[in-house]
Write a structure and sequence with these properties.
Elements (H helix, E strand, L loop, with lengths): L15 H6 L5 E5 L7 E6 L18 E2 L10 E3 L28 E4 L8 E4 L12 E3 L6 E3 L12 E3 L5 E3 L12 E3 L2 E3 L3 E4 L8
Antiparallel strand pairs: 1-2, 3-13, 4-13, 5-6, 7-8, 9-10, 11-12
């Protein structure tokens, strides 16, 4: 039985976190497929052929880990940020969540709107839709800070801050981020995405 240590580990049997922990003895393969949220494909030995990504009929975004990987005035941001061309002049339909409650939605700013108008939109339904230091509130359907303490640990990509809430862990490589990725020197759930600057209203 044993853990297969001492060079005897079978990489193909390892899950994502275990595979990353065994680098460079094992290699973790990912596919992006239309987004900057890599999908774990499998674990392998360095000499084994890489897992093949399926061909996809989409335009993949420009993903990034550092600001220098983005060009043309774009900046490296998180994957939930909106990428704007020209700003939107769409009129708003709400000013507060209560106006959207009948449809089970929340009132949020319209992405890239010229004047900051708001509209009813779907709120979060799972923690995966929030940042690494947040959770999805089942009451408000909004992302809220994760609290922590001696008996309440933070996710493996975060640490418990002095204010009693989880905060992003600083990093220099993916191996410091559990199953996350090191983006702009903080651990995140996915790669960053190159975003064009948001146009200013009335510009």
């Amino acid at each position: 039985g044993g853990s297969g240590g001492g060079g005897g580990v079978v990489c193909t049997l390892l899950d994502e976190a275990s595979c990353r922990a065994r680098a460079p003895e094992c290699v973790t393969d990912y596919c992006n497929e239309c987004s900057c949220s890599p999908r774990f494909m499998g674990c392998r030995a360095p000499t084994a052929p890489a897992h093949q990504c399926l061909p996809v009929d989409c335009v993949s975004p420009q993903c990034c880990r550092t600001a220098s990987e983005c060009t043309g005035g774009a900046s490296c941001g998180n994957t939930t940020s909106a990428s704007c061309g020209a700003c939107s002049t769409a009129p708003g339909s709400c000013t507060q969540d209560a106006e959207c409650a009948a449809t089970g939605q929340i009132c949020d700013p319209i992405p890239c709107n010229c004047t900051g108008q708001k509209a009813c939109t779907n709120g979060c339904t799972s923690d995966a839709q929030c940042g690494v230091t947040q959770h999805c509130s089942s009451v408000t359907h909004r992302c809220a800070p994760l609290d922590c303490g001696p008996n309440k640990a933070c996710p493996d990509t975060t640490v418990c801050g002095s204010t009693g809430f989880c905060q992003s862990k600083t990093c220099t490589s993916d191996t410091q981020c559990g199953t996350g990725f090191c983006v702009l020197n903080t651990c995140q759930r996915s790669y960053g995405i190159c975003l064009q600057p948001v146009p200013q209203a009335g510009g």
